[in-house]
Amino acid sequence: MTRPAAALALRPLEALGRHTLDVVQALGRFGTFLLEALAALLTPPFKPWAFLSRIVFIGYRSLLIIILTGAFTGMVLGLQIFLTLSRFGSEAFLGPAVALSLIRELGPVLAALMVTGRAGSALTAELGIMRISEQIDALTVMALNPMRYLVAPAILAGVVTFPLMTAIFDVVGIFGGYLVGVELLGLSEGTYFGEMQTFVDMTDIMLGVWKSVSFGVIVTWVCAYKGFRVGHGAEGVARATTQAVVLSSVLILVWDYFFGSVWK
Amino acid sequence: MIRVEGLVKSFGRQPVLRGVDLEMPTGSITVIIGRSGGGKSVFLKHLLGLLRPDGGRVLVDGKEVTSLRGRALDEVRRRYGVVFQGGALFDSMSCVENVAFPLREKLRLPRAEMGKRVEAALAQVGLEGIGDKYPAEISGGMRKRVAIARALVIEPEIVFFDEPTTGLDPILVNTIHRLIQDLHRRFRFTAVMVSHEIPEIFEIADRVAMLHQGRIVEVGPPAAIQQSETHVVRQFIRGEPDTAEVC
After folding, report:
1. Is B74 on the interface with A (CB under 8 A)?
2. Residues of B with CB below 8 A from A137's CB?
3. B189 & B69 share domain
4. Is A144's CB within 8 Å of B84's CB?
5. In angstroms, how far is CA A113 from the centroid of its own chain?
6. Domain with B68 in it: what CATH number?
7. Which of these, B65, B44, B147, B162, lies nearest to B102 by C-alpha position?
8. Could you tell me if B164 and B74 lie in one domain?
9. Interface predicted TM-score (ipTM)
10. Do A137 and B89 touch (CB under 8 A)?
11. Same domain, B132 and B21
12. CB–CB contact A142 B105 (8 Å)
């Protein structure tokens, strides 16, 4: 084989190698970003006001959407599970079925997806605009670590607010199921709540809590990272925001499966 | 003094700085001129430690800063004040909070003293009584002046200006230049300015350096630069179009 022909044959291999290196570098940057944020989180000076403002940003402002989606998710579950159970004459199990579906699975996942759509995208856009308008550079050259001011408070707020949002989602969802199952379809209130207490235990609740804590880290980490490493101009911010929401949503579902497989 | 030796930087296969050598004497105003895309902002980012060079070094008062990281680099940055091209004011804070921010976070001054220094800084740039207006509520010229007040409120030894007058009308350009000149006379900081404003910058600069295709092609006092025989310098100062571009 002549030298140019050999070079031509090796070109796809080179491209594959280059692409692999790019992916490994990107993963390295992604991991380092979280480590830097954790270092900023654990070392003084702490920024309590930045943390509280992120709690408001991620949690308080997501309340309405969480209550709305929680209520309708519970109502849909109440209706569908009641219709399914009634085929077997097992309507009495509606309460635990709704509660377990919400607490173990749908509550953490749907609450996380809702908060990603509302607060995660806004976090990426905000940090992206700060990046392209040199506000992050301004912090850096003032010798003030942007990770400490912008990222660490967001990740900590995610860890605190995601379980709270999930708890609200679960409670509202259970009452949504109650509304349909008890008030509309005639199941007795005692059966709905009584069976729930029999079948739902602390392990189920803790599974939901730990899932939502991990989703809080994933969403704020991904969204802050995408905002920090935004491309140029408005198009760059738009692309970063889309990528942040898509990647966060995919990671939530993938992580949910593996987490649920390990913690049964 | 800031000294730059053989600074080299490429992005991918695109070389931007091809060995920049330049000295910026203490207490003087050094203005870096050059065509758009010539590497001026990249050069400035190296001075600020926002970018790391592929080769060469930057020395501040004899101390090499290009290899510094973390706290050691922050120690050097504490001596800096920076006026960014768009101001880089924090959107979420009022103008007064923007100016107070470095005092609060870096110097941790008592509230009363901080208030006095913020008022004094805003008065220096002619914006006393700006109140609680946010950056989005004021004009471009006012934003630049707030940015200058924020950069100078901590009384830095070295101030960097990245195209501080871009996008302003000629009257505001002269107003900002006079303001910089006046503040420089009072505080005697070392100033490094990237600018396109020809011929206005010749009135305020102590030294002018022309960066062209990643290299300093000429450096000297404004009068010498204005008399330069170098083709690219003359062309830039006179604003003559490229023959190829005309065709």
Report:
1. yes
2. 48, 50, 84, 88
3. yes
4. no
5. 6
6. 3.40.50.300
7. B147
8. yes
9. 0.90
10. no
11. no
12. yes
pLDDT band at A114 (very low <50, low <70, confident <90, very high): very high
Mean pLDDT, residues A30-40 taken together: 95
Shared domain for B152 and B169, answered yes or no, is no
Of B77, B80, B88, the CB nearest to A135: B88
User: Could you state, in order of their start, the residue ranges of all structural domains in chain A?
Assistant: 63-262
Nearest CB partner across the interface for B84, out of A129, A134, A144: A134
- The residue with tokens 């023959």 is B243
- Supply the DSSP symbol for A92: G
Q: How many domains does chain B have?
A: 2
Final residue of a structural domain among B140, B156, B172: B156
Is the pLDDT at B244 greater than 70? The verdict is no
Average pLDDT for chain B: 90
Residue A209: exposure state from Cβ atoms within 10 A (0-12, 13-18, ≥19):
middle
Residues 6+ apart with CB under 8 A from A154: A54, A58, A123, A220, A223, A224
Residues of B in contact with A135 (CB under 8 A): 88-91
Which residue has 């830095």 as its token pair? B156
Per-residue model confidence as pLDDT tens digits over B1-45: 999 999 999 998 899 999 999 999 999 999 999 988 888 999 999
As given in the structure block, the two tokens for residue A22 are: 């790019």
Q: Tell me whether residues B77 and A142 touch, CB distance under 8 A.
A: yes
Q: B49 vs A142: CB contact, 8 Å cut-off? A: no
Given a cut of 50, is residue B247 above it in pLDDT?
no
